[in-house]
Amino acid sequence: MRGCILAMTLLISTPIIATEIENNEVDGFDKAAINLTDIKPVLNRIAKHPAITLQQLGRSYHSQPIYALDIGSGTTKVMMWSQMHGDENTATAALMDFLDFITLPENANWLQSWQDKLTLRIIPMINPDGAKAQTRHNAQGIDLNRDAKALRSPEGQTLMRAAKEFKPDFGFNLHDQNAYYGAGKKGNQATISVLAPAYNDAREINTSRGEAMQLIAHLAKTIETMIPGHLAKYNDSYSYRSFGDTFSEMGIRTILIESGAYPSDPHRQVARKVNRVLYKEIIDTLQNGTWKAASINQYNAIPFNASNNWVDLLIDDVNVQSHYGDYKIDIAINNKGNAPRIKELGDISSIRRGYTQIDANKLVYNPGKGFSLTEPIKLNKRHYKELLKQGYSCFSGDFAKLDNRSHWPVYWCQGAFDSQPKLHASAAFLLYQGQTIKYAVLGSELIKLN
Ligand SMILES: [Zn+2]
Predict the structure, then answer these.
(1) Measuring CA to CA, how many Å separate 118 from each of 53, 56, 64, 78?
(2) Separation of 177 CA from ligand 1 center, angstroms?
(3) How far does residue 128's CA lie from ligand 1's centre (Å)?
(4) How far does residue 255's CA lie from ligand 1's centre (Å)?
(5) Does residue 270 surpass a pLDDT of 70?
(6) How far is the CA of 175 from the centre of ligand 1 (A)?
(7) Could you count the other beta carbons within 10 Å of the beta carbon of residue 133?
């Protein structure tokens, strides 16, 4: 009884302000691109913590350092690596959040609870050159995730050497995926996709791959609680040259986590949050063993990634009037890079969904007119909208005279106007209801005019 009172007094006198991992976000990473100069100050700060060792594992082709942080001294070894593809930034931000969480004084007891059971190695940026250029590939133009066997890149060599020296029991391969995957056919955006990679063409399941599946099945519960309906899994065709598959061959329980899109979340902050929560859950479940209760069947039940399930703009059932005959059609436009084009025509809405989607059943496709550039114009949004309302959708004449300040794309009129939408053509057209122009389409932007 006395002990109880004493313990209660201690609790009251030293209140623990719990910082939930969910809310532990390091400032400055809510942006599209992250490179080494962004993470280096965070790594330097974190490395001051006595439990964390920062080391340089190797160098990139352009001689930028590749860092690793080691925490703990336990027998179960966990390795996580991010940004093997330079333009896949989400998990790197989440790793900064997680590393920061480890160093918080109020989490000292939590850290102490696992640091002699687990050893954690985090490699936050395998491809600093690709990160700097925001390219998938390294500075040699090599896709590092196709270099696990030939090891022609210094980055690939560094990652393989780390795996062979550190000998992880569990490996987490952290990537970003394109925004068009669905969690199952016609499903929500696949905000997180997972995979226990195959180690042979037969896609057999040995003990280590089976255990990777169980751990994923355990983590899936957390993901489904946070973002219901936004979890998917990759198909497990064997990819001989890839790191995940190669590590799986080496007997490492390998888990791929792909961060994806979520509605109105251009910098993938939702996936970032789920990632950092997962990293903590990985530590917790590996030390208490709860993941072993999850089953391979639960892993199998996760819906597959449906590719091209989403498009940026989907115009459903628009009317096309042509002298060859009128018809209804769906138009899908993807804003890939800076050249949005008509990606697909036909029946689209029965299998895909649009980030922006419009029922155009009462609307008529119209290609619009060309506005001839004879004098210099500064095109702001208001001015552009006026032109669209007057039925112009593209420009002709001297393009040098156009100073576009509208943030909407401008299109050069190509050849004769056609009353039909054309596959792979640039997307600039109008949608009429009767005599009224209701909308303009510029790339994947749907602009309401009336
Ligand atoms: Zn990737």
Answers:
(1) 15, 21, 29, 7
(2) 7
(3) 14
(4) 13
(5) yes
(6) 4
(7) 17
**pLDDT-derived band of residue 414, with 50, 70 and 90 as boundaries?**
confident
Q: List domains and CATH numbers for the chain.
A: 19-306 (3.40.630.10), 311-448 (2.30.40.10)
Q: Which helix (H) or strand (E) holds 429?
A: strand 428-433
Residue given tokens 């190669």 in the structure block: 246
Q: What share of the chain is helix, strand, coil (3-state, %, to 5)?
A: 30, 30, 40
Give the Å distance between the CA of 245 and the centre of ligand 1: 14
Indicate if the pLDDT at residue 245 is higher than 80.
Answer: yes
**Phi, psi (rounded to 5 degrees) for 201:** -60, -30
Contact 126, 159 (CB under 8 A): yes
Distance 132 CA to ligand 1 centre (A): 16
pLDDT reading at 3 higher than 60: no
Enter the pTM of the model: 0.90
Q: List CB contacts of 289: < 8 A, sequence separation 6 or more.
A: none
| Beta-carbon count within 10 A of 145 CB | 23
